[in-house]
Amino acid sequence: MARFGFHASHEQLAPSALLEAVRQAEEAGFAAAMCSDHFAPWSNAQGHSGYAWSWLGAALARTGLPFGVVSAPGQRYHPAVAAQKAATLCEMFPGRFWMALGSGEALNEHITGDRWPPKEERNARLLECVEVMRALFAGECVTHDGLVTVDRARLYTLPESPPPLVGAAVSAETARWAGSWADGLITVNQDVPRLRRVIEAFREGGGEGKPIYLQVHLSWAEDDETALRIAHEQWRTGLFGGDVAWNLETPDAFEQAATSVRPEDVRKSVLVSADLERQAGWLAELAGLGFDALYLHHVGQEQRPFIDAFGEKVLPQLAEPS
């Protein structure tokens, strides 16, 4: 049976508020948590972007939940530093931390001033980072000269077990590639046929038997009109895929690209409804695809009503045997 977790969106809440939200989520019955790792939000309306790694230490200490993070080593983060951060969390909180690795987005990575590589090169760079990080977790002294450069790096504080390195993928093509190197897969909600193709591609690429996770964007409020307004105000810049999402560099650019997005368009990527029974039905269908965990992201900035409502009415339904 799938676990249901809480997604902490650093783009939308201040770190202190997000810490309180994840504590409330644990009390309400959420069994796990994950967070984003951004330098900038998708839009000025979202308005936040705290440093995920500082926050993760506090969140792991404040709760008993297992946590994951979606991150991108290679440009903003040197892979040796990424490995050191992850190893430190795993040493302090054994068995409670995993990290998902992606090739990154210009929104967060352009700040270094380095050239933003094309997707094929970013994937190759990510694979080098994975190899470097795994060698460091194994206690090796690493020197590497390629798309990333490492000079005699060694981790002096190692956990008993390194973190699982999960592949982040939206398309079937990327999921198949991730199956060849990742310890698991995380993807985002989209229509069920596409999700099935993503899962199948990951397994065909080498991911058979490995865990698969789903981040679910949803919007809930007391009425459908408010739920849709929240989704449009906060998450219309999250509709873009492919080259648009990867290559835009600022919140202003995302807002400009989203000027033609209508409220109804947001339903393509956000589960919008005030009906808790309907929300539970959608989540049950997604869980039935075989995911090991679903991380629920209410795209509004007010998290407490969502946490209370889903903790009381939705999670108990999802825990019942079908």
Automatic annotation (TrEMBL):
CDD domains in the cross-refs: Tetrahydromethanopterin_reductase
GO molecular function, one term: oxidoreductase activity
Pfam families associated with the record: Bac_luciferase
Record flagged with keyword Oxidoreductase: yes
Enzymatic class: oxidoreductase
UniProt entry tagged with the keyword Iron: no
EC number: 1.-.-.-
InterPro entries listed in its UniProt record: F420-G6PD/mer, F420_G6P_DH-rel, Luciferase-like_dom, Luciferase-like_sf, Non-F420_Flavin_OxRdtase
Keywords, comma-separated and alphabetical: Oxidoreductase
Domain (Luciferase-like) ranges: 9-292
PANTHER family hit by this protein: 5,10-METHYLENETETRAHYDROMETHANOPTERIN REDUCTASE, PTHR43244
Protein name (Swiss-Prot/TrEMBL): TIGR03885 family FMN-dependent LLM class oxidoreductase
Lineage, opening ranks: Bacteria, Bacillati, Actinomycetota, Actinomycetes, Streptosporangiales
